Every structure is written in structure tokens, then in C-alpha cells.
Amino acid sequence: MAELQLPNETVAGEDSGIRNFSRRAFLRGTGGLALGIYFAPLLGRRGLAEAAGDDFEPNAFLRIGSDGVVTVIAKHVEMGQGSYTGLATLIAEELDADWRRMRVEGAPANTALYKNLAFGLQGTGGSSAIANSFEQMRKAGASARAMLVAAAAEQWQVPAEQIGVRQGVVEHAASGRRAGFGELAEAAARQPLPADVRLKDPKDFRLIGQQKLPRTDSPDKTDGSALFTQDIRLPDMLVAVPAHPPRFGATPSKIEASKARAVPGVVAVVEYPGDERRFAGVAVLATNTWAAIRGRDALQVEWDESKAFRLGSAEILAQYRELAGQPGTVARNDGDAGSALEQATRRIDAEFEFPYLAHAAMEPLNCVVRLDEGHCEIWNGEQWQSGDQQLVAQLLGIPVEAVSITQLYAGGSFGRRANPHSDYVLEAVSIARAARDQGVKGPVKMVWTRDNDTRGGYYRPLFLHRASLGLDGEGRLMAWQHRLVGQSFMQGTPFESVMLKDGIDKVAVEGIDNLAYAVPNLHVELHLAQGIGVPTQWWRSVGHTHTAYATETLIDEAAVATGKDPYQYRRALLDKHPRHLGVLDLVAEKAGWSAALPPGAQGERRGRGIAVHESFGSFVAQVVEVTVKPDHSYRVDRVVCAVDCGLAINPDVIRAQMEGGIGFALSAAMHSAITLKDGMVEQSNFHDFQVIRFNEMPQVEVHIVPSAVAPTGVGEPGVPPLAPALANALFAASGKRIRRLPIGNQLQA
What we know:
- By secondary structure, this protein is α+β, with helices and mostly antiparallel strands.
- The protein folds into 3 domains: about 220 residues, Aldehyde Oxidoreductase, domain 4, CATH 3.30.365.10; about 160 residues, 2-Layer Sandwich (Aldehyde Oxidoreductase, domain 4), CATH 3.30.365.10; about 325 residues, Aldehyde Oxidoreductase, domain 4.
- About 30% of the residues lie in helices and about 25% in strands.
- The longest helix has 28 residues.
- The protein is globular and about 80 Å long.
- It starts with a strand and ends in a 15-residue tail after the last helix.
- One of its GO terms (molecular function) is oxidoreductase activity.
- This is Isoquinoline 1-oxidoreductase beta subunit.
- It comes from Azotobacter chroococcum.
- Pfam families: MoCoBD_1 (PF02738), MoCoBD_2 (PF20256).
């Protein structure tokens, strides 16, 4: 990737990051809204700092320049999910702005001003960006609109209620007066912030819900001007590539660096400490990325593995099976599942295995750090501002306010960049500090190679499920017992007190402890495995990734066992859940569920499967069509998806997220797994941690349920239904149930 030299005014000292100058402080908080609006003419960043004086305002959700450009300050990172477009749409709608004049910048790290209302910290996760900003950003736009109108009314000496706004133009029809936003910006800045604003009735929306609204990040990403961490190049900056231990918990004991230092471009080799939550390692610093990689590869490091984790995946699963045979901590208990199972006419017993999974975003982890006396500056695709800022300050022994973070684009994440222990950010800071101790004073860009990223830990946890279903003589579902075994990654995080209570990690059992199907006797237990030294973390759709698979394949098996249509069987069990039924009915209709599948070629068998699941407040149903070939390999032909995510802010973004989630889920269902042998991760890159290839991507159709309720998540909910719908389709075609992911070549076994 090309490296771009930033202009000095965008990277130097206190002038870096987002700054907004205002002639007055607009708002000191009502209803949790923190609004700062910069209306003064745009100045160069250095000129802005000089002009600001005591009125320098670091907070803003939007600013309007004298050129009429509206800049939205986004507290949520844009990592491909469309958050910049969604946030800009909310403001532009209430502001009645010209979409062509909308721009978006990332907000600085400031928890007091930019916290995520969903979890009280500044960060992006849980598919919450639009849901938690829906009213907040609309109020920001409506307030700015009211101030522009008030400024025009004062200048033109006409009643404000006679003034209209459309596409960035303020006008008084009776007198023919018109002014663009930029012409009124200074005058509007002198208006008082309205105490209250009236938001639009949805019937008057002009941008929300509009098809083919261009994404705000597309131009930058098309012409190459978009700034990712890898694009940052600061004066005197060095690139650091780390060497990590082969086993989790190991530390360097002996380093032979002469060959690394002999690589042209290598400047320094530094050892840096870690702790139980992040690597201790050795980093090679060089003038460019390639030299740093070559230097890292030339290192000879002996590792102290006295405290290293040494179990393999098979040994971990053996421990889990032993735990699965014992009673666990009860997460849900309705009725008496044990007695009901004994009385059942038919019983289904199943065990499911789910591997560790890497996030495998297209941009491996990276971070730029500049240390000065008592201050730290960070540039990266920042997803976890509050946690990273606080833990960096703690590591360096400086105030939180002395850690500044500039939010750039991120090339994907799927949760990895929101690490609750700030592992890779603290590693970058540790490398920069170790370099300063050796006299290297310039900024440091830490770059993980793909093998660092694949073997770097913080995976979706490995899980084992054991379940039993009981059916009566009519095929009705009488009982369900379900026991899960896996690691908790909420322990030791800021969310432990809320998400880990009485031995239950809520994200481990989500999707099964709130099962929507009508089961009179439901019993769910959880074992949290102890002493497993593999770092784990949330992964796109978190616990729903495994609970949806188990529940939706079991429901399918129950339907088939009693001769019922899988779609109609689900309908009967969801009669009290209208939003589940809404997506289920829509996907069945659009997929042509009632019609027979067209036959395949000679010797091929075709199958269709269905699944429905709720996650992150959204409801998604999917139908998958497959072809099983004579050699027992298979092809995914078509996926039809129906989603109810409340009010559709950007329908095209929703479709893109469902499509992306389906592709992401197909990779995990078909191919991907992280396995360990003697404590070492066996995979290193996309050749052995395989994701789907272009020729494996099926035809995908996405249908959105019309809704007027508040918007919910779309980044993650497209993932959970795919794997079970695929497995159900493969059963329909082959007669074989898949209990272990990834599917791989199990049909051929």
C-alpha cells in the first residue's frame, strides 16, 4: 500500500486531530446531547488554533464552513460498515442539507463528549452506531437548521416561520430572498442554541430511506485519498514489525539481532515487555515496512516458555467434553426439561463443535504512536477510544487528557480493533517507549504482518454444545436441554460487572437463553472453562455465531423427524413473535419456498434450507440453495435474505451489510478454523486460514421489511442464520447432518 506524506499542519503537535472553534460554547447538555457547532469561516488548522484563544471548542457533531460544506464529526469509526454515511444521513435529513455538500471526519478520543450511548464508553461495536445516534444526530441537524433560519430571519427582518430550507439553501418565498448555508454560517454562530427542536415526521423524510444515496466514503476510497493507518507517514517516522512468541505466554530470553541489523534500512531492534493480556516480544524498526519485515524475519530469538500455554485443540475439546458431562451453571430454566425428556415419544441428541476463529480483516492490525514528554499521540483505525486512551495513559503514567487519538478509516475489524485490553495499541506504545529508551525519538508505526494477525490471538472462542430435544407423539416440541462449554472473554473487561454474573457470561449464551421458539420445558446451562490460555474476544455477531447454528439446525431436525415442513414448523413455534414471522414469511415468499427446486445436472442433488434468528435488535431469515455433486463436493448457488432492522436509514448500506455478513459467514461455515497443536497456532495466512474465493460466492438477494420503529443493528445480524441455513440445505440434498464447523469435506467422509 502506498504511503502518503501528510501536510505538516495535519500531523504536527497540538494541531492534530479534530478541532472546532466557536464564538460561544453551544450547549452544556440536555438529555445526554453534547452538541458543538462550528459555523465560523474555515481556517487552516494552525490559523484556527491561533484564533481560538479561550473559546477553543474540541467538541462538535457538525460544522458548516463559509463554502457551505457541512462536515459531520463521527464518533463511530468507518471500517466499511457504512457508519459515516448513516450518521451524515441523520444530520443532513434534519438540516435539509445538500447531500453533495456533506463531508465526514472522525471524532477525537473524548469520552465525555462522544460516548456511545449503548454502553457508556466511546467506541464502535455491537452494531450500535446508528441505533444509539438516531435521535442524537438528528437533533444536532435540527438545531443547526433552526440557527440558520434564525440568522436569516434576523437579517431579512421576516418571521422565522415563513422561512424554508431545502438542499442547503435558506429561502423566504414571499420576498424571493435566498442564501446558502455558507453565507449564513457566521451569523448563525451568533444565534442562541434552541432549547428544543422538533424533529421531522417520517413521512417528510427526503434522505432517510432513499435508495442509491452515494456513500460518503466512496470518493476517498476510489481516488486513493482515504487515510488508513498504513497511509500515515510522519517526519522521522520508523516502521516497527514485531516478532511474537510461538506460544501464548512465552517471553524472549535470548536475542541474536546481528543479521537483522545488517538488513539495509533497519535502524533499531528493541525488546518490549508484555503481560498476561498482551505479547512480550521483539520489534525491528526500519525506514520502511519491507525492511522491517526482512529484519524481523532475520531475527534469532529464543523464548522462555515456562509459563506458555501448551494444549492443542484436541486436548481442549477433550476437557470440554468432560465438562459437558457434568451439570453447569443454569442460564435459563423453564418448566422441567428433564422430566419432559423422559416422557418424550421421540428424542434428538446432538453434540456440536465450533473452532476458534480469527477476525482476518483485510487490514492487519497497525498503529502509529508519537511520544513526547508527558504526551502521547496515536493515529489508527480507532474503534475503542475510551479503553485505548485510558490504558495507554495508565501504561505511561500520564493523564488521560495527555493521550490524543486521531481516528482514521479502518480496513475492516469484525470486533478485533475494539480489544477490551487494548493489546495491540499498548504493544505499539511499548515499542515506541522502548525505542526512545535507545535514543530513537521519532514516531513509530507498528505494522502486524498477516502471520502476526492470524497467530495473534483474541479469537472467537472454541465452543462445545451438547443438546437434547424431546418431541411428543404429534411432533410437538416438549423439552429442550442445552449445555454449552467455552471460554469467557468478558472476564477482566470493563463489561464484566454487567455481562458476567453468577457464573453466566451473557454473550456466551445469547441466542439460546432467549430462545424465541415456544418450548414449555427449556433448560440451558453453561460451563466457563478455566486455565485455557488462548486469548479470546468478540467476533462478528459474538455468541450468536454458535448458538444460532445449534438451535436452527436442531429445529430443522425436529421438523424433518416429524414429517413437517421446516418453514411451517418454525411458524407454528413463533406465533407470538411477529417480527420473527415477518422475516420468515418474507424470505419464504421471495425464495419460492413452496415451489420445487429446479433439478441439477445428472448425478447432482439439490437442496434448500432455512433459518431465522434475532441478534442486536434485528431479525434476519435466510434461505440457502445448494447443489451436491456426484463426488460429494458442493456448491452454494443462492442465498435469499430478509431483514427487519427497524427504520431503514440507508437501504443500500443495509443490503451491503447483509451481503457482506453472508460472505463472512460462508467463510467460517465452509472453510475457516484456527487450530492449535502443542499450544502453537497452526494457521498463518489465507492459504490455511481459508476464506471463500470469488468463485464460491453465491447469488445473494436481500429484502428489507418496511418498518417505522427505531433503527437497530445491521453490521452483525446477517451472519448467524447463514451457517444453519446452509447446513439444513446440505441435509436436504445429502441426508447428512453437520455437527462440526467448518463443513470442509465432511460430506465426502
